[in-house]
């Protein structure tokens, strides 16, 4: 391999790690919304495919490491994936241990990465012969995933019954757009619907603010008083295996293995499911929370890496929620990448290994270090100078732009509609995982109803 | 993240005398929130619309618009958080 290409990969990985360390800390940054557009732009500028892969891997590892910081400190999810951790992180925060929470989560992330990189490569290799068959049944797999995750929720009948109506809403809008010519018939609006689901809870709350009765009934407060405990600085280079106890290392590792194996499922859904599974038997609240967040962070990382690498290597179609969401530009970015000509076709197995290892190692060494050592300073800065309103505004603006980009003015209304319904379902306990799976399998579900 | 429906009218509550409300786990002022959404939507969609007719440039301009909107809002809106430090006790 050419030395200049390796240097380019290292440079791109450093860029990805630094950029997404910053973005990860900003609360509420949705993975797809922040990763997909930037990756897309890089692909379209004609960067070498292998360099793009190194960038992407570095970016997801860094983003996953840092999005736990706002969760730990303020209970605000740094992204969709960290939303399930809020509840447990709040337990640690209540006991005045947000720093412990950050260390446990970041260490869980590192373990997830270390386990998932080799495991994903092996699993991908094993799946290559099955790639075509899997591609053929992807819709059924996604539908099965929606049913499975619905059964896992607390209000399982509500979740189960909402599958078909929600699929109808999604397909209904798509057919409307085709019918009136908002988009050509071979274009399926996806990204903006995805984002509509993501910010559903916010959209619902914004609508509620327009209702006088609800607005008046909301409790009024002056300020959000945050108490930070001064942390003792950690000397030397932090070691993730020492920051976790043995059981936590074990359960994050096992959870990560499951995370790789279920790469085609919604990572948020699996995170919730596995995190609860590994912590439900522990009674002591602090231990329970530590176990849950370290395992959950392991699963999210593993699920993300596996969800990117396995479909890329084995199938060549974006057949996992990660691939079809944040990683979509690696599969489809016309005219550079298409279904028949993307990283799957361009890169060899050794290319995949080299790019992944470079990206992951650089992100871990840069971001893990910064996260553990300076989380308090970073948080204090964000809390002091970044108003929550600006973050909500940015999020909203980004979604509106991507809605317009997908299908024009009409789609802004469409995304608000999806967000409103998704927000209500979310409040009723139909989690993101179920909703994303429905989004992926909606075309197939609707066809079965004829 | 579950959004619990807030209790209705807790009068005379010490916590209940400000003008701000909670949205997504943090405190915001309704007027500031509307202002911020307006600014960010205008800069983002504006950036997208004034860009030359080229898919990747439109996206770039839109992303620049996001950053500009974010910077404006961060300057003109004051965070509603207070931070106090306590020493770590074990």
Automatic annotation (TrEMBL), chain A:
Top-level taxon of the source organism: Bacteria
TM region(s), chain numbering: 6-26, 38-62, 68-86, 106-128, 134-151, 158-177, 189-207, 304-331, 352-374, 386-404, 409-426
Pfam families: TctA
Keywords: Membrane, Transmembrane, Transmembrane helix
Entries under InterPro entries matching the protein: DUF112_TM (IPR002823)
Domain DUF112: from-to ranges: 11-431
Protein name per Swiss-Prot or TrEMBL: Tripartite tricarboxylate transporter TctA family protein
Species of provenance: Virgibacillus profundi
Lineage: Bacteria, Bacillati, Bacillota, Bacilli, Bacillales
TrEMBL record, chain B:
Record keywords: Membrane, Transmembrane, Transmembrane helix
Transmembrane segments: 33-51, 58-77
Superkingdom assignment: Bacteria
UniProt-recorded name of the protein: Heme ABC transporter
Organism of this sequence: Virgibacillus profundi
